[in-house]
Amino acid sequence: MAKAVIGNLLSVYSPTQPHKANYCTFKHPTALFRRIFMANFRASSTAFVEAQPTDPIVVEKKVSQRRNLLACPICYESLTWIGDPDFSVTLDSIPGSILQCNTCKKTYVGKETYLDLTTASGAKNYSESMPASTELFRFQLISFLYERGWRQSFSVWGGFPGPEKEFELVKGFLNPVMGGNIVDASCGSGLFSRLFAKSGLFSSVVALDYSENMLQQCSDFIKQEENFPKENFILVRADISRLPFVSSSVDAVHAGAALHCWPSPSAAVAEISRVLRPGGVFVATTYILDGPFAVVPFLSTLRQNIRRISGSYVFLSERELEDLCKGCGLVGFSCIRNGPFIMISAAKPT
Ligand SMILES: C[S@@+](CC[C@H](N)C(=O)[O-])C[C@H]1O[C@@H](n2cnc3c(N)ncnc32)[C@H](O)[C@@H]1O
């Protein structure tokens, strides 16, 4: 009975159309984005994408074969709501809600603002610490400062075009999966999650992060917004290397400025690949360092050794990112670059 009332956010739609982008011949998925890239990105390492009138995006509502999206991060089996049979998943209904894994029977209790779907959730005596690049964002102060200057600084020194322009670029890559569900992985304070939700281009949005304070900050921003579409939006705490979604259930995964923060990018991208349905699309932004560091053997070995010691994945090369996606079963790698900024995309084979 409980299963039957799981709302939109536990639903996923099976693909009705194959992934259309022609990855062999184009570096970018649509003519629009090829135009933007050619006109604005190649010319200068500091040039940003100009806001241009975009081709109208027709959002197809995919209505066949709904099934659960949220899964136990231990068994990867779908979760069932316990208690109120009229329960449906919305941002407002998370507090106090209880989900149970049908296989291992572990229960997950909704916190005030988010669902904690980490493997260690509910542990009384055990707590886990992650590498510094993950732990840093768990501090309340960092979460508070994130959209109040921290994120903006990426444009000053990192070549990031800024959230609005990045969002336009992301939409170009996500065109083939519009109307489906999207996971904003490592959403931080939710700047893109909120844009995805308000755009109305996706049937549901899952904003996911490991940081409790980032999720709280996202919730605070949402409370300040009028008419935010809460009914198709949910906040989830999870580790990127252990995603709480049923395999092949997600249409799109976006990860802004996060890949270099992940403890193991390969474990993370493998998880993303697992949860994407055939034709599902992965889009991410990060920093790269190419040039001599990518081609001169001594320098690339030096970089690898520095990475081993520091444990940080800031400044991979484009080739490494392509290899990472390929190694995790994703195809059709394409990218947009601007100085150290790179937006990459790849898809699950159909
Ligand atoms: C620089 S912020 C990016 C936020 C946002 N996506 C953006 O585009 O600005 C990186 C985010 O990655 C998250 N993160 C780091 N390690 C993670 C992990 N293991 N699992 C999930 N999220 C993680 C951090 O909590 C932080 O919110």
What would you note in describing this structure?
- With 350 residues, this protein is α/β, with parallel strands linked by helices.
- The chain has a single domain, classed as 3-Layer(aba) Sandwich (Rossmann fold), CATH 3.40.50.150.
- The chain has eleven helices and eleven strands.
- The protein has helices spanning 31-41, 132-135, 140-150, 153-157, 163-174, 191-199, 212-223, 265-275, 292-295, 297-310, 318-327, and strands at residues 79-82, 98-101, 107-109, 115-116, 181-185, 204-209, 233-237, 250-255, 276-287, 331-338, 341-347.
- The strands form two sheets. It has an eight-stranded mixed β-sheet, sandwiched between helices. A three-stranded antiparallel β-sheet has the order 1-2-3, with no helix packed on it.
- α8 links the parallel β8 and β9.
- It is globular, with a radius of gyration of 20 Å.
- It binds S-adenosylmethionine.
Identify the notable features of this structure and list them briefly.
about 350 residues; alpha/beta; Rossmann fold; three-stranded antiparallel beta sheet; 11 strands; about 30% helix; globular; disordered N terminus; binds S-adenosylmethionine
Short description:
Helices cover 29% and strands 18% of the residues. With 350 residues, it is α/β, with parallel strands linked by helices.
User: Helix proportion of residues, in percent?
Assistant: 25-40%
Q: How many helix segments?
A: 11
Low-confidence region ranges: 1-54, 61-67
Number of individual domains: 1
Q: Helix/strand/pairing class, anyone? A: alpha/beta
Question: What would you say the CATH architecture is?
Answer: 3-Layer(aba) Sandwich
Output the strand order for the largest sheet.
4-7-6-5-8-9-11-10
- Order of secondary-structure elements: HEEEEHHHHEHEHEEHEHHHEE
Identify the CATH homologous superfamily.
Vaccinia Virus protein VP39
Alpha-carbon Rg, integer: 20 Å
Head-to-tail CA distance between termini: 33 Å
What's the multimeric state?
single chain
